[in-house]
Write a structure and sequence with these properties.
The protein is mainly alpha-helical and 260 residues long. The chain is 36% helix and 8% strand. The protein has a 3-stranded parallel β-sheet, with helices on one face. The protein has a two-stranded antiparallel sheet with strand order 1-2. Strands 4-5 form a two-stranded antiparallel sheet. Strand 1 and strand 2 form a beta hairpin. The longest helix has 16 residues.
Length: 260
Amino acid sequence: MQVDGGVRPITEEEALTIRLKRPAPFRPFTSGWASLPYCRSRKVEAAVYAHSSDEMPERDLVADLAAADAFLESDRTMLTIVDALEKAAFHKTAQNILTMGKQRVAGDYLQPSAIFDKQFRVRSGINDVNDYIGPGTGYRLDDAAQKERWAEIQRLPQVQLRAIFIADQIGEPMLNLPSFIRPKKAAAPKQVGVGPAFGKALTRTINGLEHADVLAAIDGVAKEGSLAAWSRFIARPIALSQGLHGRKAPWARGLGAIGL
């Protein structure tokens, strides 16, 4: 399944690097403008590593609000911010803020379903029309043009190896589990479909039950240590499909179906 939820995964190291860079451009304002309260280094560091606002040092909220009011009442504008950033050599930040100001004046971002791309171009329902007309059309991650985006989505830092999830389901293979048994109709009242790893690579369920105990608990499947009607479905590893496939087997008509 390929789904693009708009998320761009990054590692914790990348997040910390970005956060450490962000406060620097604003130092000229807190140190050079008398109306803005100074932000000490420990508060900046706390903002970088804090999980929530509860972990932030207390600030003088009255002073912060008074500084904001003073800025709004002065003749300073966004261009004042851009000019200060340029003088402090924060050229990229200055350019981004200036571009956002231009976009606010243009107002194109108010179009339906509008977003900015990496180049601050507006993409909306007007200039980037939805071309979905049914399955297999529209925006698809399996398109060659989205190869880089699909690789980006898969770089999830919290991904775990599959072996970790099945570690507690691995045990000694069942010696009395043949790969395929074709029973007589009268031999058993049920047809049980199992996955390719059942009783071999995996020997326990996700709840910790032994596969041998599961088979023994099914009425008509195991009696006195002998297995009855069951088969292994290599191409259908999903339980629901296994049960359906087993029920449709020509020699299993009239029997119940169970997928394991």
